[in-house]
Structures are given as C-alpha cells and as structure tokens.
Amino acid sequence: MAFLLLLCLTGxxxxxxxxxxxxxxxxxAVPDLAPGxxxxxxxxxxxxxxxxxxxxxxxxxxFDPDETNTVLAGLSKTLKTAPSDSFVVLDRRTAQVLAxxxxxxGPIGFLLQLHTDMFLGLPGKLFLGAMGLVFAAAIISGIxxxxxxxxxxxxxxxxxxxxxxIKWLDWHNLIGISTLAWALVVGTTGTxxxxxxxxxxxxxGGQLAEMTAPYRDVPRPLTLVSLDAAMSTARTAAxxxxxxxxxxxxxxxxSNNHYAVFMAGSTPLTARLLMPALIDAGTxxxxxxxxxxxxxxxxxxxxxxxxxxxxxLPLKIIWAVLDVAxxxxxxxxxxLWLVRRRSALPRLTASRTLTTAEPGE
Amino acid sequence: xxxxxxxxHRIWPIPAMIAAGTLISLVGALVADGIWDRLAALLLLVMxxxxxxxxxxxxxxxx
Lengths: 361, 63
Description:
The structure holds 2 protein chains of 2 kinds. By secondary structure, chain A is of the alpha+beta class.
C-alpha cells in the first residue's frame, strides 16, 4: 500500500513533466527564427554535439515530434554506455547548442527516478512492476467485494450520517468501482514499462542480432558514410514515415557496421510504433528494415497509456484528477484496514481472556 | 432513489458503463488526434463529475 501511494504521489507531478520542466528552466529555450528557416545538414549537427563534449562519443540523435526545430544528442565516454552520460539539445536550423543536461537532472528527473526504480536500477524497476501486479490483484479483489457490500444500497450511496468508517467505506467503494478501468490500465501499463530493459535486451539478442547476422565478423568501416546520406536512404525506403531516432554504429541499438534509423508512422497511433532501417555505415545502402516484435510494440503503446501525456493538456488534467481519486481510494482503504484491525483487537483479546479464564471457574 | 429490498440498485450497470466509457476515451485519444483528444477528456470529466455528484447527493431517506 505504501509503495502504491508512493507511485501515485510521485506520478502526479510527472503527468505535467513537460510543463514543470519548462517552468523550472530545464527545457531548452528555442530561439524565434523566420518561419521556414531550413535545417542545417545532420553531419553539422553531429559535429557540433561532439565539439561541445570533447572526449565523448555520439551515440544517438533523437527527433522530438513535438519540437521539430530541435534535436537531442546522447553522448558518452564509450559507445556501449547506457544510459548516455550527457544529453545536448541543438537547434536544427543553426546547429547551436541550446541546452546541456545530465540525464535525470532537476526535481522532475529526481521524481521520475523515484517513480521508476527508487534509485535501485533494474531490481527496483522489477519490484515496482510486481507492485503494479499486486495493484491489479487488489482492484480485482475490490470488484469481488463490491457486490456483497453494495447489495442493499443504490449505486453512489454514501451514508454520511453513519460512522466515519461507514462513510469512508462508501466513498472507497464508489470511487474505486468508478475508476477501476483507468486504474487497471495505468497499473498494468506501468508494469509493462518496468520490463522495458528486459524487452530491449530480448530485441537486441533476437531481431537485431538476426538483422545484423551477415555482418557479425565484418570489421567496422574505417570511414563512416555521411549521416545525411544514411537518413536519406532510410526516408526513401520508409515512404511517408519520419525519422525519430538514429543510433550510431557500435551502440546497443545498432551493429558495428550500421546506422539504425528508427522510423515512425504518420498517424497518431503509428507515430508511436518504430521501424528500424539498418543502413550500411560503409556504403550507405539499406540492408534491412522490419517492424519491431509485438512485445516492443506493446511497450511503445503502454507508455502513453501509463503517462497520460498523449492527448494534450485537458487529458493531462483529467489524468491528474483520476490519480488523486486513486490516492483517495488507497488512503481510505488503508484507513478502513486500520480501523477494522483496531476494533478487532479488543474483541480478540476479550475472547482469549474468556477462554483462559473458563477452566479455573 | 432509495434502496429497496431485492430490487436492482444499478450497482453494476453504471460502473460497467463508466468502465466502457473510460476505455473508449483512453483508446480513442490514442488512435485519433485533435478534437477527439478533447472529446475523450470531456467524457472522462463528465463521468467523474457524475460520480462525485452521486456521492454528494442527499438521499430521500436522509442518507
């Protein structure tokens, strides 16, 4: 119960992470330029990111669909380090560095880490994932108990003139049964999110290994083909899709010999599903492009359904309302359990006293 | 609206409709954009207000 309350409380500000980061100065301020200002070549962006972080290696470039004038670069001391040591935000129109952050910086970064793994890494994530399953089980047991408790009452009855325990029992039942679909969706998608690292490893060892198998023993090219050329090849192959992320050769998301360009669809749903296009980093040729496996697609779809950040500010506000409602259900459940325990203890003690007293009487 | 012994009290149909409306809103906002996002948020808001009003309403028997 305490962990579920922690998840609901830390999750509340995270619904507005974008707005809060912006207000606290953790979002890059994008300069106003004339509309239609063209983007500079990506090779220049990559060079600017590397020049900004001497001694670090560029791992990936991420293109935010909501902020098309910027690109996020991830850099680290080694190619395989995950997560990256540094994030640099650059202007796509000027290659100017707009922000330079450590991942997870600021109060929202702190809350996010507390919410995702309690600063314990993978074990923390898996533990909280198990808590998500316990939450789902608690909801189902609540549905089972709702019928017997409500059999003589109308829907929505709150007996305010009865004891505090009865009043809170009625509110617990009413809010709990009304928010169960939302709570089940958020709870189960949260659990799926805690398996992200494992799913990624499964994909790397499965589909990605299969796609790059012909290159297993091929040495890394001495000179890499232009990033713009690789992107152009991926765009041509993917039709109407747009690039969301480019992983550089040698990182965990590609092979030693490939740029992996992750393309996203153009509809609200397919924009969340990525398709990797592998581009030979020596020749610039497309070598493979496939839809990602079902479990990765499920992970991509579970992320917006957990965070509630996919439908604009009105949906975020109602998401926060439902989160507060869940906090009320958890807190009232805890209160009811404590009151019941307190009232049961004297009865138990009295019955024990009676039992021990009987033989001597 | 008072409870009567043995009569149905809508303890299942209303929550079932709210659950269905919630799922429609969440999935609808995921697969569509623009006005559908706002409609989904509106439906969730209306259902939340209905539940709150049901809880705050004074019953005929003074409950």
